[in-house]
Amino acid sequence: MDTLAKRIKFARKHRGLTQAQLAELSGMKQSDISKIENGSIQRTTGIIGLASALRCDPIWLDTGDGGPWNEESAKGQPEMRGMVPLISFVQAGEWNDIADHLQPGDAHEWLYCPVKHSPGTFALEVEGESMYDPGGRHSYSHGDIIFVDPAKDAKHGDRVVVRLEDQNKATFKQLIEEDNRRVLKALNPDWKPRYIEINGHATITGVVIGKWVKE
Prior knowledge:
This protein is an alpha+beta fold. It contains eight helices and nine strands. The two termini are about 30 Å apart.
């Protein structure tokens, strides 16, 4: 990797960051990062901030000497401030067991979560149309990204990620609590079955705290 452009792009892809996310974490403008990656800018005074955001060796990033991951830059690799892992619904069902052991490469990618969240927060890509409600306040289409916080207490009306005991992966629904009953509700009025009673046979993995929609 003989150019700054190649090193920046390699390290950014390794961390699963977009240019916008790298800009946010490093304090640089996204336009400047774009110029670096297309070769318009070949040196920058923002190397330290970029290396910190990318968790790589600043000397390697600036000059190409050595390797990208020295001992100090790798120490905190799994702890990416503001970043959360994008995982599968199968992993979400096992989250209580695997969260403390997740390594950077175990996630599909790492995404910047723009709202306040606990360290255990993760992201999921919505599957199917059970939570799609074009006439409702909340609606989630196939492919949308949701951020899920396990530390947030689930209450009536929240959108939650739940693992049912008879399934090997989690599901995404709205929590309804009425008359001492707990029910999962699909927001899509045409979805069947729309309601699933969960008293005694489900574990709430986390509460949805935000959504990001792909362009």
